[in-house]
């Protein structure tokens, strides 16, 4: 009888260990997925920031060119 209880206890410990291993692996997968999504959002935000910065720079350049044109300093204007 003691042998059966010992064998049953060992089997239960093995099953519990396997369940714990599966749980830890699932948890690691969830954490990895979450980190991946956060990095993806950071990269997207950075790309959007760069796009807006270059648009603003282009707008400032156009305004400067327009200001030069309005002040009579157009290219080819010989007076």
What does this structure look like?
The protein is mainly α and 79 residues long. Helix content is 87%, strand content 0%.
Indicate the topology:
Layout: H1 2-70
Notable traits:
rod-shaped; single chain; 79 residues; mainly alpha
Content-based structural category? mainly alpha
State the order of secondary-structure elements, H for helix, E for strand: H
Main beta sheet: strand number and arrangement? none
Distance between the termini: 115 Å
Number of helices: 1
Task: Kindly summarize this structure in a few lines.
By secondary structure, the protein is mostly helical. It is 87% helix and 0% strand.
